[in-house]
Structure formats: C-alpha cells, structure tokens
Amino acid sequence: MKRGLLPCLVMAWLLLSGAAQAAPLTADSPDRKIHLEVDGSGEQLVYRVRFRQQPLITDSALGMQLEAGGMRSGGARLLGHSRAHFDETWTQPWGEVRQIRNHYNELTLALQTRDSKALKFNIVFRVFDDGIGFRYEWPQQPGLSDFTIEAEDTRFNFAGNYKTWSIPADAPTHYEMLYQQASLSAIANAHTPLTMETDDGVVVALHEAALMDFPAMILRGTGANGLRADLAGWHDGPKAKLRAPHRSSWRTIQIAASARALPTSYLMLNLNEPNKLGDVSWVKPAKYAGVWWEIHLGRATWNDDDPRHGARTANVMKYIDFAADNGLSGVLVEGWNEGWNHDWVKEGWRNSFTRASKNFDMPRLSAYAAQKGVRLIGHHETGGWIQNYERQLGAALDYYRQHGVNTVKTGYVAFDGINLFDAAGKPYKEAHDGQLFVNHQQKVVDEAALRHMMIVAHEPIKDTGLRRTYPNLLSREGARGQEFNAWSDDGGNPPGHDVILPFTRLLAAPMDFTPGIVQLTYEKDKPKNRVNTTLAKQLALYVTVYSPVQMVTDLPENYAAKPDALRFIKDVPVDWEDTKVLHAQIGAYVTFVRRDRGSDDWYLGSITNEQARALPTTFDFLGSGKTWVAEIYRDGEDAHWKTNPHAFVREQFLVTSRSAYTLRLAPGGGQAIRFRPAGAADLATLTAM
Ligand code: NOJ
Ligand code: CA
What we know:
single chain; binds 1-deoxynojirimycin; eleven-stranded antiparallel β-sheet; alpha+beta; Beta-galactosidase, Chain A, domain 5; binds calcium ion; 40 strands; 11 helices
C-alpha cells in the first residue's frame, strides 16, 4: 500500500463534435481489470462494463427524469467529458482496517436533457480496482432552482442470469428480513446491497454510497437479467425534492474475482467524503452490556408500571457491576424514560426523552457508573414519530450529556413508514427509505456531533458509508439481528443467516447485531424460540460481524455459568488494525482474521450454515519469526446447533505462521481463536499444535 501519496488530479474537458460522439468513452480501473464504456451515440445514453475481458453489464440506460418550473425534462445528450486520476491512502479513526487506499480513474460526462429546457447535468464515474461508482450532479444554472426527481432511468442489465441474494423492498420491516436466494431474472424488487455470483464465481454487489438529502435507491427486476433503479418517493408524488446545485448518492457496483475478496472492498467508504468532524478522539469504540435481552425474553418489561420493569435502579446497578467486572465500557438501559406505558409504537408521539421513569434514578445511576469507570448508554425509541423526537432532540441529548452519557441507541420501530402529523394534526406516513428520513437521521448525527456524542441507530436508513464523513455514526442495525431469536414467530434466524450477512448487509458495514448469547435455549421464557447456532459460533460472530460497538448480550448470570466463553468475549477487541478473509462461500461459510489495533494479537472467527465443515488453514497472517499461543474456542466433538448447541471446548496450543490447522465447525457451528505472542511461561507449559 502506498502511503501519503498526494492525490493526483488530471482534468481536461473535451468538448465533443458530432463525429467524436460516435465512439464510446472509456475508463479502466487502475489494474485495468474493469473496463467501463459509456455510449452516447444513440437516443439513449448507455454504459456497459467488462471484467477481465468478459462482458458483465451489457448496455444499460443512464438518466433521471426531472420536473422544474412545471416542465418535465429527461434524456441525455452528451456535450463533453473530463478525466481525472486519484490515489491517496487515508486513515480510519476507528474501523476494520487502519489504512485504506482510495485509487481510481474518474470520467465525468457533461450532459444536457433532450428537451427545450436543455438542462445541464453531469454523471461522474469512478472506476476502482474493486468496482465502479457513479452519481448524477445538477449544477446551478438558469432555469434550475427548486426541482423534483420524478423517476430514475438507471438500469443494471447483466450478461447472465446470475445467482443473487437480497431482501425484498416491498416489505415494510426496516430491512429486518431473511435474505432470499433467487436467480436474477426472478427478482421482483430488492433493497441494496444486492449481491450476485456468476457461474465463474465472480461476485458483484449493487448498493449506494454517501446517501444524503436524497431518497434511497430500490431495485426492480425487469424480468430479463436486469434491474431498474427506483427511488423511495414522497407521499405526495415526487421521488426527491431538491434545489440546485445538488447531487444524487453514488450508485455502486462492487466487483470481486471471488466471494473472498468482497468483504474487504472499501469502495463504499472511498466514495464518501473525508471526516468533517475534525478531531474525533472523543469517538470511542466500545463493548456494552445492557438491560435488553431479559426484556426481549419477556422476563422484564419496558413498561414501568409492571413489577418486572427492567430499568429499575437496583437492576441497572447489577449490570453496571457486571460491566465493570468484565472491562466493558457501557451499559444500555431500555425503558429508562417515560413513554413505555402506552403503545410506544402507535402512540410514539407521546414518548418523552427528557423525563426518566419513576423507577430509574438517573443522577444516582450516572454517579454509580462513573465511580465504576462505566458509562450508561442512552436509548431513544421514537416509534418512528420523528417530529416528536426532533422537537426534543437538543434537550434530550443535553440531558444525557449532563449525566455522562456519550452514546445513544436510537430506534424507529414503525412498520409501514415514518409517522408524521400534517399541519391540521392528521397523521400520515413517509417512506422509511425516503429523503425525509435520510435527512432526519443526518440531523440526529449532526446534533450528536455538536455535543461529542455517538449514535447507534436501530431501524435505520441503510448504511452507505457515511461513517467516514461522520465518525460519530458508529453503527446501525438494518438487518435481522439477534433479537429475532428471542421472539420471532418463524423461530428466529436460521444458521445460514449469519453466513450471508458478510456478503450483503455488512458490505455497508458496521452492524449492531448483538452477538454473544451463551445460554442458547430458554424454553421457560420462550418455548418456540432459541438461538439457532452453537455456543462457539456466538463467539465467532464478534469477529465475523464487524461493529465498533458490540453488545455483550446475554444475562450476567448466564455468563457466570459459562466463564470460558465469557473469557473470549472479554478479550475480543472492537477496533482493528487489519482484516483478512481466509475462506468464503456466500451462504455457506466464512472465516475472518482481524488484528487488534491496540496490541499484536490476532483474532479469528469462522462460521458455517447448517452443514459441518472442515476448513484447512495456515496462519500466514501472523508473519514469520514468532511463536504464538492459539487460544481456541471450538465446537465440541458432537456439537450441533439443534441437538447439542452448548458442546464447547477451550484449548491452547503453541503455533507459528507455518502451523497447519483444520477448522472443524459443527452443523450451525463456528470457531473463535485468539492469537497472542507466547511468553516464557507459555513456552514452558503448552504443547505445539
Ligand atoms: C427494536 C430494536 O432493534 C431493539 O433493540 C429495541 O429493544 C426495541 N426496538 C425497542 O426499542
Ligand atoms: Ca430492530
């Protein structure tokens, strides 16, 4: 990786004559494996993509339909183009790797609409070694001030009927769905990231980057091997309400030679602007416990009129003690505020974010936490009623800040859109993926940043890499997390779920999945539910699901009964120097290794679906010349997610980078390993692998 190389920009605008327009414009990735062509010779402006000389995307339309001053404008006439080259390595303040190379060739098209308004716009393409991003820009110009987007014309026509993984876009559940595997031609509609695999094992993911003041992109199947971009529109018609100058989010096409290369593509981050918050030394990755799983199991409540209310001062103290005893820096408390005694979703407009429950002594608890070196983590469940939340936002964040809370988990449980009141007080809805909610989430991140506070959003708008620009936006949910294992009617997340996430949702990274359940069955609480993994797999999830905030999810008493498992959870870091993928097959298995930012240690997490695996591996990533202790947390010999999920072994061996090892994963199982440099005592007492 080149360090400190200055961005090199070569810009030259070339105006096209009629003859020059006939030849397609091209741009290659720096390694020349990806080849983009843009063709403006016909009525419809199209692009196509080849990967390693093979057609990947065939002629696909570009364009947006605008309405400005009562007139519809669309189509694209090519006026000219410019080129640029960029190569810079930047540092993540926290993340899955410390340094990221941002290296691309850029092609900007100057265009005008094919109507009497002849509105000028640009399409900017960036071609990286790991894919392509492109966005639409509408410069300020006569005849374009306030305008709307009425439709997007962008298409993604693929060269084959590839295998895909995605979740449907027409289900009103904040992306909390199981991924479906389908052939490309069978897709009706899908959220992004949508991932596909060709017969040659090439992997492609469609998503978007830097989604700001614009609606989210949804994909609709064309029936053939194609997808058409659509936008989550406003309730009164337009897709987006904009003022020039403005630009869309980037449409992204990540391309990897194999599934192994996809999770470590950082194209999404590279397409976002650098950190706008300046010194962010106040942003701290963290592990946290919380008054949470016991509520989802039904042993405790959010409602403070119930004797089982979870946020009672004494109960919270128990969690603060647990966090302090185990080196965790945060304690989330749900149900701490007024608002849970009515229907907190339907009547979320009544929730208060500044008044604590009668059972929750905020001054006492914040002082107790501070004395123990722990911070309370805040919780703002809005029920999707964002006007009520925005009215209280400043005061709510100030209130928390005064009590030492620097991280807030937000929540937007609202099943068919964001809830609003119109001027006459009548309730109505906007799309969960629409421009309004995108802007609301940004407002919360901005207000939090002003107070040096961090946000973890549940039921969020999908992640598009904005954490690069706003590093206080720590993590999000935005997929089916552990909570489904507590109460979902369908029995929870099947063993195959977590082996799809790294190739889909986690490309947009990070996710507050809440791993680490060690008591996997709870018949007395929830007879129809359980965690559908082995115990070792729960540990491995701390490595395979990247997040700078990870919950230590289970109940303190369950960890007390499983000290070996707790040991790994205490050790595993949440901030990484480096990340590599050793094995990968989408929906089947994946092995990650990550190097701790704060020490020389490496951590391995390997997980499988319903099938047992034997994955041969070497430890090359450790680098030569040292002897290491491998602290192995693996499935027991007869472990099985369904029949014997708790069978679990912890063992230690001396290893080097040349040791050969086979990761044995039980059905629905996993394995976690900590590698630490061996000390004299280890060398004297442990045996070599
Ligand atoms: C859904 C969130 O994902 C979950 O973590 C939370 O406990 C509930 N909403 C209540 O806010
Ligand atoms: Ca949720």
